[in-house]
Amino acid sequence: MRIPKRPVSFCLSLFSPEFPRPLDSRISFYSGFHYKTPNFSFAKPKQIHSTGVNQLHMSYMMDKGQKAVLGDKRLSSEPMESSDGVQEPCIWSSPEGGKDEAELGKQIFCNRSLNMRNIIAVGFDMDYTLAQYKPETFEKLAYEGTIEKLVSNLGYPEELLGWTFNWKYMVRGLVVDKKRGNILKMDRHKYVKVAYHGFRELTKEEKVGSYGNTLIRDAFDEPDYALIDTLFSLAEAYLFAQLVDFMDKNPGRVPAKVDYARMYKDVRSAVDMCHRDGTLKQMVAKDPIKYINEDKSIVPLLKMLRDSRRATFLVTNSLWDYTNIVMNFLCESRTLDACNFDWLQYFDVVITGRVMYDSVIDFDNIFSAKPGFFHEESNANLFEVEPESGKLINTDNGTPMAQVGNTSPSITLKKQNECCRVFQGGTVRHLHKLLSIESSSQVLYVGDHIYGDILRSKKILGWRTMLVVPELETEVKLLWELRDSRKALQLMRSDRDHIEDQIHRLRWSLDFEDLNADQKQEKSALVEDLELQRNQVRIKHQQTQRECHQNFHKVWGQLMKTGYQNSRFAHQVERFACLYTSQVSNLSLYSPNKYYRPGEDFMPHEFNILPM
Ligand SMILES: Nc1nc2c(ncn2[C@@H]2O[C@H](COP(=O)(O)O)[C@@H](O)[C@H]2O)c(=O)[nH]1
Ligand SMILES: [Mg+2]
């Protein structure tokens, strides 16, 4: 249990021929770049202002009678918006000094101490980290593309084509029980607290029947379960729930021999194909603003890091052609026709996903660079990409050519002032060598995928990590607004526990003590009275807790809590992310030399002793 520092009272190329082909099969021994890059030398750091975020830690004084002033600038979680709705850059170390205080929803939260002075390279994931997709359009596209494939390729009925997608329904952190057709939310002990079969909520008995009584605790992992741990999975989870409902109500309408698990597999493979065959990427490439949020803070952030003498790198599972389009949009507001490579000036090294020709469903382990990229013992080859043509250097007639001394990287070090180099595949050893990184603890990597970006990089490698959780912005805002209800809930729980203790004592006395008839009658009456009180408090607590959760999400409640315990997702965030925040650009609200420190750890036995 950690309390914040201040007192808290609590593919193949995915493009069709109309797009430039990224990978040419010609051999190329190209060793330099023609495109013009602006001066690439490390600039002298700008003056760092001292009004940093040391002063920013919010104090959630819930029991000191301090009223929250939501109009108060410190508490506002509205993004800084310009008139056109685009978030404006806000740079801590800008000559203007940036904003004095990070708003609550934009703060960076710390699980594990991280002194930025020890970090010499900051890396970024691209999709859903630098590029925040708009789920209402992007995930809808994935949903519709998936249905189209289910109908045309896998024999599902045509009426699916008329279904609609509610992009707000599913949330991260849920678990799909593939065999039973259920979607689950569990707490950090993996107790299933919220469960739906399709869209029907399971009764308590059903929940206990399926998940409560097993002698061996279920791990709730693959292959029987699937984790909804990236925003990319929201559409498939929703479609799966719809199909479960559909199958229950229309037996015989789904293809023969298809059960829930098979249905999930079909959905997964159709989603996978949408990511590989251009269904999604071609549409994004044509009209990025429809699918990706513009973020004018990204370039200033990258500049700030580079000015502070950090190397910057990008490691994405997207292929080079798509990466170039997305990064052009994010950094230069350029679209397909006007794409160039100017954005590379903000990075020292870019590593994109590698092409796999096998069509295997478990995309995480097969086609991508990550998480395999983080395995030092992996011998995936690294190929340099020629940005203009997308051609791979070090290829033999298009066939990847094994590098000499496969087990140790044979690439040359990046020299200072040399422009950014683009690679495909490889492993973390290559990256370390390219950036002259001696210890993995000198790297901070920012990603959105707890499993693919954060868990592996931190656990296996020892990189320092920052998880981007866009949902956090609303979550902390609501936490603040609902602080009174949460305080009331705490009191109800403590009342309930107190009453129950009294009941137990009285019962013990009635059963084992030598009491006369009057005493027995008196104690029995007291027990009856207390039981009535306990039931009232219990019902009130349940109701209030449900209502409180529903403020966060009508179905699944608060992202980081299940009941009143940390959710499984929150538990993973706490264990694997050194830092977490709502948007990558929040980094620019803090000094690049900041020492992030977690709040003090608290054990339950300390709560009632230390004044808070
Ligand atoms: N083949 C599949 N690709 C997928 C799937 N879900 C996401 N993706 C792609 O992965 C990368 C993620 O990039 P990163 O920058 O976050 O590392 C992106 O290109 C997605 O399109 C999938 O199910 N199958
Ligand atoms: Mg990502």
From TrEMBL:
GO terms for molecular function: 5'-nucleotidase activity; metal ion binding. It comes from the Eukaryota. Mg(2+) binds at D125, D448. Its cofactor is Mg(2+). Binds 1 Mg(2+) ion per subunit. The active site is at D125 (nucleophile), D127 (proton donor). SUPFAM superfamilies: HAD-like. It holds the Pfam family 5_nucleotid. Keywords: Coiled coil, Hydrolase, Magnesium, Metal-binding. GMP binds at D127. Gene3D superfamilies: HAD superfamily/HAD-like. The keyword DNA repair does not apply. The keyword Metal-binding applies. Residues 516-547 form a coiled coil. InterPro entries: HAD-like_sf (IPR036412), HAD-SF_hydro_IG_5-nucl (IPR008380), HAD_sf (IPR023214), Pur_nucleotidase (IPR016695). Belongs to the 5'(3')-deoxyribonucleotidase family. NCBIfam families: HAD-IG-Ncltidse (TIGR02244). This is Uncharacterized protein. It comes from Salix brachista.
